[in-house]
Design a protein that fits this description.
Elements (H helix, E strand, L loop, with lengths): L1 H6 L2 H37 L5 H11 L5 H8 L3 H6 L8
Helix pairs in contact: 2-3
Amino acid sequence: MRAVSEEGAWESWLYFFVDRIRQQAADAVERTDEFRALRREYELTYGHEKTAADRFEMCLFQYPYVTTNEVANVLEVTRLLVDAIPLTSSSA
């Protein structure tokens, strides 16, 4: 920015700025592709939604931030039970 204000070097600054926008856009496309692949994988594994846990897994793609009340609704249980569920799996 100093070169722009002192020397009027707008062109090099614009090239730099546009290149950073291009990099961010490419990164966003890559992350979106990875997210879509993950969703397809989850749909194959949990998409049948036979269990409450399957419904919850699929719900997270639509609503990645949920409250305990929303989890209780998806799992069709009371909030007291949801609060008792550990945050990490011991089988992992």
